C-alpha cells in the first residue's frame, strides 16, 4: 500500500511503526461486512434448480394452496357471522379482516418460525437467502406488504382495462 497523507477527520487512521523504523500509514476505511443478498429463494430437496419449469409451477401451486387457506379462513368467519350472529352486517368486514390477519400471520410469523408455509411444506420448499441464511421477520413483513401492494395494483389495472 502506498504511503498516503493522513485524513485529519478520520478516526482510526494515522501512522504506525512496524519495527523497521519507517512509519506506515493506516487506512481510515473501516472493514465493511458484505451485505446479504436481498433476494430470497425457495429450495427443495425434491426439485433441483435445473428443473426450473417444474419448480416454478410447484411454487405457484404452493402459493395457490396458501391463498386458498387464507380465503377459507375468511369465508369461515363470514359464514359463522352470517349464521350465528345477531349483526350479520358485520360479516364482510370481519371476513376481510380474518383473511388479511391469517395471511399476515401465516406468511410472516409462521414462516419465520418454521421457514415454510403450509403450501410450501407440501413440496418440501424452504425460503432462505442464496447463502443459506434464513429470512428475518422484517424481510418477511416487507415481502408480505409488497405482495399485497402488487396484488392490489394488478387488480386495479385489470379493472381499469375491463371496467
Q: Which overall shape is indicated by the principal axes computed on the Cα atoms?
A: elongated
Quaternary state reads: single chain
Order of strands across the biggest sheet? 1-2
Number of alpha- plus pi-helical segments = 4
Order of helices and strands: EEEHHHEH
What value does the average pLDDT take? Answer: 83
Give the low-confidence spans.
Answer: none
Tell me the distance between the termini: 66 Å
Instruction: Quote the beta fraction.
Output: 5-15%
Structural class comes to mainly alpha
DSSP summary, beta strand count: 4
The portion of residues assigned to helices is: 40-55%
Q: How much is the radius of gyration in Å?
A: 26 Å
Sheet of most strands: 2 strands, antiparallel
What would you say this structure looks like, in words?
It contains four helices and four strands. By secondary structure, it is mainly α. The mean pLDDT is 83. Strand 1 (14-17) and strand 2 (23-26) form a beta hairpin. The protein starts with 13 loop residues before the first strand and ends with a helix. Helix 1 packs across helix 2 (91-114) and helix 2 (91-114) packs across helix 4. The chain has helices at residues 52-84, 91-114, 118-121, 137-162, and strands at residues 14-17, 23-26, 41-43, 126-128.
Amino acid at each position: 500500500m502506498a504511503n498516503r497523507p493522513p485524513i485529519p477527520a478520520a478516526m482510526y487512521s494515522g501512522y504506525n511503526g512496524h519495527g523497521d523504523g519507517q512509519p506506515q500509514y493506516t487506512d481510515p476505511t473501516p472493514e465493511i461486512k458484505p451485505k446479504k443478498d436481498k433476494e430470497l429463494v425457495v429450495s427443495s430437496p425434491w426439485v433441483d434448480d435445473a428443473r426450473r419449469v417444474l419448480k416454478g409451477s410447484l411454487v405457484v401451486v404452493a402459493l395457490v394452496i396458501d391463498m386458498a387457506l387464507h380465503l377459507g379462513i375468511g369465508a369461515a368467519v363470514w359464514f359463522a357471522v352470517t349464521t350465528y350472529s345477531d349483526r350479520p352486517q358485520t360479516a364482510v368486514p370481519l371476513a376481510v379482516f380474518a383473511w388479511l390477519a391469517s395471511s399476515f400471520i401465516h406468511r410472516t410469523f409462521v414462516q419465520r418460525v418454521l421457514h415454510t408455509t403450509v403450501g410450501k411444506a407440501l413440496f418440501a420448499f424452504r425460503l432462505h437467502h442464496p447463502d443459506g441464511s434464513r429470512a428475518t421477520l422484517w424481510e418477511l413483513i416487507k415481502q408480505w406488504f409488497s405482495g399485497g401492494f402488487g396484488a392490489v395494483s394488478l387488480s386495479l389495472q385489470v379493472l381499469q382495462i375491463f371496467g
